[in-house]
Amino acid sequence: MVIATVPTLGGQDIAEFTTDLANSWGIGRKDYDDGVVLLIAPNEQKARIAVGLGLERELTDALCQQIMDEKIIPQFRDGDLAGGIDAGADAIIFRLNRGLSSHSPQS
After folding, report:
1. Cβ distance 5 to 42 under 8 Å?
2. Domain residue spans in the chain?
3. Is the pLDDT confidence value at 105 over 60?
4. pTM given for the model
5. Section 54-66 average pLDDT
6. Which of 14, 53, 56, 59 is least enclosed by beta carbons within 10 angstroms?
7. Are 75 and 28 in contact (CB under 8 A)?
């Protein structure tokens, strides 16, 4: 998982920018496609959670949007960029820990 802030998207669509960044940085394991990127472009007031295909069961588009709407954006609106990033990262990590532990073998 990577959290990145950028001064500008350079006119590029945030979804495309995030995917390009994840691919160029090699986020996640290649054979599992399990990377997660939380990208923040504060000057353009945009943010996105991008998830590799290997984690889409755990972090669906709907869940990512819910995290944005309930955890990240309200903090940003209050002028708390760091708080929004922390809240978003915590929500993502919580969901991944919960989802991955449900797939572990029972003792």
Report:
1. yes
2. 2-101
3. no
4. 0.87
5. 94
6. 53
7. no
pLDDT tens digits for 5-22?
999 999 999 999 999 999
User: Which residues have CB under 8 Å from 87's CB, separation 6+?
Assistant: 71, 72, 75
75 near 40, Cβ under 8 Å?
no
Question: What is each CA distance from 78 to 21, 38, 42, 58, 84, in whole angstroms?
Answer: 28, 19, 13, 29, 9
In 3D space, the residue among 47, 46, 38, 45 whose CA is nearest the CA of residue 92 turns out to be: 38
CATH 3.10.310.50 fits 2-101, yes or no: yes
pLDDT-above-70 percentage for the chain: 92
